[in-house]
Amino acid sequence: xxxxxxxxDFLWGGATAANQFEGAYNEDGKGLTIAxxxxxxxxxxxxxxxxxxxxxxxxxxxxxxxxxxxxxxxxYKEDIALFAEMGFKTFRMSISWARIxxxxxxxxxxxxxxxxxxxxxxxxxxxxxxxxITISHYETPLHLVKEYGGWKNKKLIAFFEKYARTxxxxxxxxxxxxxxxxxxxxAIMGSFFTTAMRNATEADNFQALHNQFVASSLAxxxxxxxNPAIKMGCMSIYATMYAYDSNPGTVMAREEKNRLFxxxxxxxxxxxxxxxxxxxxxxxxxxxxxxxxxxxxIIKAHTVDYLSFSYYMSTTVSIDPKHxxxxxxxxxxxxxKNPFLEVSEWGWEVDPVGxxxxxxxxxxxxxxxxxxxxxxxxxxxxxxxxxxxxxDYRIDYLKRHMAEMKKAVVLDGVDLIxxxxxxxIDLVSASTGEMSKRYGFIYVDLDDQGNGDMSRHKKKSFDxxxxxxxxxGEEI
Length: 476
Prior knowledge:
Elements: E1 11-15, H1 18-21, H2 44-50, H3 72-86, E2 90-94, H4 97-100, H5 111-126, E3 130-136, H6 142-148, H7 155-171, E4 177-181, H8 192-195, H9 202-226, E5 231-237, E6 241-243, H10 248-271, H11 276-285, H12 293-301, E7 306-310, E8 315-317, E9 342-343, E10 349-350, H13 352-366, E11 370-374, H14 392-410, E12 416-419, E13 442-444, E14 456-458, H15 460-470
Parallel strand pairs: 1-2, 1-12, 2-3, 3-4, 4-5, 5-7, 6-8, 7-11, 11-12
Antiparallel strand pairs: 9-10, 13-14
């Protein structure tokens, strides 16, 4: 491993989402999104999954930290300068659909929104930072939920196609790397952020996914027409899955869960067709998806160039009845406690080897370049009076994951092109709507109640990551 490592053009960087750090939620013509009406706090995810919340802003009952985020909208030059100081090769960002089309179905785009992203992209390019743009990152325009019922409605395909064409025509000659839908496979779990639907049935979720597959393929088609050099990727969340024991029933349960969650969406977007296990699942469940031969042909013809995924944790599957009350708290995917793994402050199991397994699994199955678009440790950072933050725990977490990435590249032959740790600058957590769950190399002086001056401060991990990038991962 001393003479081989990451490719010379490896894209080191960081990742964010517009709705979690831009702020300015109602400025310059921007419309409301599903993120803007999603309450903050520890009950956020249970509330969103239950469907029992209003599609309105209710400040008497809830808080909405993402409304101001960390004010990247007004401070982007300062933040991008810090990214450049760390040596970023790429910056994964998203565009807010409602900044471009406030209602989602508008006839004309909002020029002020387009101009803002012009400025951000140009600022990144000034420092030779390659933008990686996610077209849809958990913020479908709210009007599309109220008027059309979210992604189960096929009309959203055309609205998304128009939105994608608008931004690809505007930025497609400047930006090479794009992704369509963020963590698209969370729709399998009934995520409101993904499908923009409340109280959806399983059939609704699969219909919404089908419509997004078509929309994703159309965006890929448009991108290649505008600039053949564009690299379009899909993006899913990956959870390495273990069978708790060698009981064949447990192993089969793990297999069924794994292929539906970790493979299904990637199979459609990378391979371009519905896999046989999915068709059998639909038939056995009585799920009927409305699709046309033309739509299936679009999906087949316009597959992605690379596969991007987020990795935070693994999960362990058991069918033993005595484990029903031993579910690990915090893991998105359920599962029982893995006795070999530690957990974070938020109950997420920490499993660096699981990342290597993920890389080997995905590259072995699909054979396309891989892009780790999210990975990181959410933790409470406590600065001293001078805002010194010694986040050795974060450095340790990232070191261990990077070491496994390197093994996957050198020992397993995986074609890995990029690594963008999540929340490279502190931002509002998607899962809890809190600032206290911090991921960044840069501390932002802002608490869960919105107190603080939002000043930026380098953590210990800032200089450590700067050295990792400078040496292209030789010094981890």
